[in-house]
Each structure stands twice: as C-alpha cells, then as structure tokens.
Design a protein that fits this description.
The protein is an alpha/beta fold and 393 residues long. It contains 13 helices and 14 strands. Helix 5 packs across helix 8 and helix 12 packs across helix 13. The chain starts with a strand and ends with a strand. The relative contact order is 0.17.
C-alpha cells in the first residue's frame, strides 16, 4: 500500500479540495480511500502542491508531432491551412514515429492517462497499441467534392480495419464543415456514431463562420481560388449546419457522446440547438492552440452558465508550442480567473474520462485506477502559476 499526502487533494467527486489531504492506494494504483490528515508532519510522503486524478487530453493530433516549431503564429485559419498543406509529410516515417512517441511519452510523464486523438493515417497506430496511455482514435476524413464521398468512405473503412488489427479503439469521424461536402459530413458522421463517439472541429474561427453565413472571407477565397467546392451558404453558424447534417443521417435525440472541438464562436443559439438534440454533448477547449492560430479564446463564461461539460485538449504541435495540460489550465486561469482550480481539474480529468466512457479514470474514488498527478509551484491561494508543472506519481 502507498499513502501520499499533500496540501491540496482533489478527488473531483466535487470541485472542492481536501486541505492537508491524503490518498491511499494499492501498489497497482487502485484507490483505497482519500481523507484529511490529522498530522501532515507525520505523513510518510507530503507535498506542498496538489494531487489530482490523471489527466485526459480530450483533443490531440499526435501524428503531427513532427511539425513542432515549423509554423508561423497568428496567420488565421486560412494561413494555418496553407502551412499544413506546405509542411505535411516533410519528414521520413522513422522521424514521424520517433516524434509522436516522444510526444506520447511526455504526456504520460505529465500524468495524462487517456487521450482522444485524431488520425488521418496509420502512423500512430503501432505506438498507441504498445503504449500504457489509453487512446480512442478518431479517423478523420476530408473531401470537398460530392462525387468523392463513396471513395472517401471506402478509404476510412479500410483505415479502421488497420486500426482494428492493432487492437486500438477507432472509428470514423468528420473533420469540419469547411473541408467536407455536405454528403460526406452526413455519411461519415452516421458511420462514426455507430461506435458511440464522434468528434468534430466546430466554430473554431470567425473565418469559418463567414464561409457558412455569407460565403465570404479568406477561407472561402482560398477554396474558390484553388477550384475546390465550397460548403453551402446557409446563413447559419457552422454548428447549426453540422446539426442539420447529423439529422440527415440519424434522427434526434443523439445518445452518443459527441465532442465539439474548439467552439470559439459558440453562442446561445448554438448551445440551445445542441441541448435540443444531444443527450451527451461535450466541448473540448484548446486555448493555447486558439491563441497560436488566431488569438481568440472560447466563450468560457457562456459555456459555464449553460452547464456544458467542458474538456481540455492540447491540439497538435503544428498549432502549439508544447503538449502540456497544465499550461492549458494556466492559460484558462489567467484569462478566466473566476474559474477555480477544482473546476479546471474537473475539465481536465473527470469530464474527459466521462466523454471517453472510461469509468476507471477521472476521480479519486475507491476501486478506481485513475493515476495520480502532482501539480507543484502553486501560489499562496492554491492557484496555478507560470512555474506550475505536473508529474505522474
């Protein structure tokens, strides 16, 4: 048995910490109990920081880890897509696999126990299959031309067969409204929902919204210039457009777990529409990626007022300097200081585990094996600082 104590222990059965708390675990990490220490000075192990269950990275593109340090910041989404097209596949397969393994090992050492990861190919499958971190892989597809829908679907089904061969949980998922024909959004969403899970890049930038609402903006112009089909101009937000495409292939309500990624432009109309048709919606926020690309953050206050289940992701090393969950939390705390640390940790652990339906993670409760994370260098009030780091215990 192991007993570890700290100034703050966050079981995350509620957002409040145990002050001078302890965690008792079996040698294999199974939680026995948590409680408050009668004498912190007598504890065999006592830390001045905070203990929490292992993190869940709710949105990542780990296969893009070879792109670290290559991208210019602040280009907007149109400029970012141009860079992706220019820099993709600029390293050998051995280099790609090396870099994504380094990224996954780093996440694991930080205390990430599970990840919702996006894959466009099989590059990451072997590493995921042998890694102690649990991953659910979303096989993301693109295809702006309606006549290519069947071929794209055939391709993603074959990719799923490869993933199945590695023994990893994987299923198709759509990318975003602006990279797919309406037919493909519906087809791949319908297929992916059979797994019980779906992920969708939604309302990431105003450029995306301009495309759907008015047929204008840099992203629209780029596609027209390239001779590509553009999404229909609906006058609606991209989130409402996505819901319409879902309903074409699957009647409401949706009992599946649906992850809406980014949602920087989410408004009350969109939230009401989500709640009207989805029983289990989640939102993955990736604040450092949003600042990297277009210097915008999601409407956290609006999400909290509406009781949305927020999760935390790192996105990729093409749109982030590092993949560090605590840095994402510090960014959120700095910009939304009204959100207490316990709530941020709930987003980073419990909500992500709930999205993935991994009941053994997310809280420090008896019988679970959620992993244990130490977060250090807190300030006198128990808040994160720029020096705060996390590590697996």
């Amino acid at each position: 048995m192991r007993r570890i104590a700290a100034k703050y222990v966050y079981p995350l059965t509620s957002a409040e910490p145990l002050i001078n708390g302890f965690v008792e675990m079996e040698d294999d990490g199974t939680i026995i109990r948590t409680g408050v220490s009668g004498d912190p000075s007598a504890e065999p192990v006592f830390y001045e920081g905070a203990l929490a269950p292992g993190f869940v990275n709710a949105h990542c593109h780990v296969e893009l880890s070879y792109m670290k340090g290559l991208f210019r910041k602040g280009t907007g989404m149109a400029g970012f897509i141009d860079q992706i097209n220019e820099l993709r596949d600029t390293k050998s397969m051995d280099e790609k696999v090396r870099d994504l393994r380094v990224a996954m090992d780093s996440l694991w050492d930080q205390g990430v126990v599970a990840m919702a990861d996006i894959s466009n190919c099989a590059d990451s499958f072997a590493v995921k299959a042998s890694h102690p971190m649990y991953t659910r892989t979303f096989l993301e597809v693109f295809g702006t031309e309606p006549e290519d829908c069947d071929a794209v679907m055939d391709g993603v089904r074959k990719l799923k067969e490869v993933a199945d061969g590695f023994g990893i949980d994987a299923a198709p998922t759509p990318h975003a409204c602006y990279t797919m024909s309406p037919q493909l959004v519906t087809a791949v969403s319908t297929e992916g929902l059979k797994s019980g899970f779906l992920s969708f890049h939604s309302e990431e930038t105003e450029e995306e919204e301009e495309m759907l609402k008015s047929g204008s903006g840099k992203m629209w112009e780029n596609r027209v210039k390239a001779g590509m089909s553009v999404p229909p101009v609906t006058g609606k937000s991209s989130l409402l457009y996505f819901i319409d495409r879902l309903l074409e292939g699957h009647p409401a309500p949706f009992d599946e777990h649906i992850l809406l990624v980014h949602e920087c432009c989410m408004d009350q109309e969109g939230i009401d529409a989500v709640k009207a048709v989805m029983h289990h919606p989640f939102v993955a926020v990736c604040p450092l990626s949003n600042l990297f690309i277009h210097n915008t953050l999601p409407p956290i206050d609006l999400m909290r007022r509406n009781g949305l289940k927020v999760c935390v992701g790192t996105d990729s090393l093409s749109s982030n300097d590092d993949l560090v969950i605590v840095d994402e939390l510090y960014c959120l705390q700095r910009n939304f200081p009204e959100v207490p640390l316990g709530e941020l940790l709930t987003w980073a652990s419990r909500n992500g585990a709930e999205f993935l339906a991994k009941r053994e993670f997310g809280t420090l409760e008896a019988g679970k094996r959620p992993g244990l994370v130490l977060i250090d260098n807190l300030d006198a009030a128990g808040c994160l600082t720029a020096a705060s780091k996390s590590r697996r215990l």
